[in-house]
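Troubleshooting log. The previous structure file for this entry was overwritten by mistake, so regenerating from the original sequence record. Sequence copied from the archived sheet and checked twice against the printout by T.R.
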Amino acid sequence: MPLNDSGTVVLGSDARNVDTVFVAGQVRKRGGPLLSVDLPALTQEARASRDHVVAAADRATRG
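Regenerated output below.
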């Protein structure tokens, strides 16, 4: 692995490699897990958004 290519680190990593995240000075992830996030609700919102976009694209392609 090239030691001088920062992209190698980014491309070879995922969320499991991130221990702590701060957003606007607030801890949002510590020790691995997300804090103060309703993951099931967020997942449902993401699915609903995906379904909306797919349905709109389908309507657009049908004319």
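Residues 39-62 form the longest helix (24 residues). Archived copy saved in two places this time.
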